Amino acid sequence: MRTIGLDGAEWLAVLRIGLGLWWLESWRHKDKKDWFERGTGIGWAVGVAAKHRWAFVRGGFDAVVTPRPKAMAYVVVYAELALGLGLTLGFLTPIALIGAIVLNLLYFLLMIHDWAEQGQNSMMVLISVVGLFGMSWQTWSLDEAWGLFL
Q1: Rounded to two decimals, what is the model's pTM?
Q2: Cβ–Cβ contacts within 10 Å for residue 69, how many?
Q3: Has residue 28 been placed in a domain?
Q4: CA 62 from centroid of its chain's CA atoms
Q5: 114 and 97 Cβ atoms separated by less than 8 Å
Q6: Which chain regions cross the lipid bilayer (predicted)?
Q7: C-alpha to C-alpha distance for 50 and 71, rounded to whole angstroms
Q8: For the CA atoms of 141, 10, 121, 69, what is the dihedral angle to 10 degrees?
Q9: Contact by Cβ (8 Å): 121, 115
Q10: Residue-wise pLDDT tens digits, 27-79
Q11: In sequence order, which residues have a C-beta less than 8 Å from that of residue 131 and are 6 or more positions away?
Q12: CA nearest to 107, candidates 39, 32, 31, 23
């Protein structure tokens, strides 16, 4: 493979690190007090789910998220932090990439009617898939340094 500046594995690492920074920014910009104490993030999602066009999304959300808004707020916020750190540092990278795919697909499914959100989720899934199948943890990662996932 011919590339400019870096080799292919290094460009994949750049992509992985960029995705990690994107997740860290998603975590950073959340008002944690609002999310944890006032429940604004999950409260907003409850409103979106209640009007969702697909009954299985409404039912699934009502069964899993609605009864536990505080716990789900922590899950969402700290999942974004864990994904960001894992991808940026290259720690347990394949697991983080699979987690990123799953979380973005959940966001995608919940926000299926909002095309502005879908661009971000689609791009993050695409980057995650490329990072996973390109084995982006082979360069500039703790996984590489510790000999994980070789």
Answers
A1: 0.93
A2: 15
A3: yes
A4: 22
A5: no
A6: 81-110, 122-140
A7: 19
A8: 10
A9: no
A10: 999 999 999 988 888 988 998 899 898 999 999 999 999 999 999 999 999 99
A11: 12, 15, 16, 19, 87, 93, 97
A12: 23
Handedness of CA 99, 100, 105, 110 (dihedral sign): positive
**Cα dist from 59 to 62, 66, 102, whole Å:** 5, 10, 19
Residue numbers of the domain that contains 54? 18-143
CA-CA-CA-CA dihedral for 143, 144, 146, 149, to nearest 10? 60
Q: Is residue 10 part of a domain?
A: no
Instruction: Give the count of beta carbons closer than 10 Å to the beta carbon of residue 96.
Output: 28
- Nearest residue to 121 (alpha-carbon basis) of 110, 99, 105: 105
How far is the CA of 50 from the CAs of 96, 97, 108, in angstroms? 30, 29, 16
State how far the Cα of 6 lies from the Cα of 36, in Å rounded to an integer: 42
Q: How far apart are CA 88 and CA 145, in angstroms?
A: 14
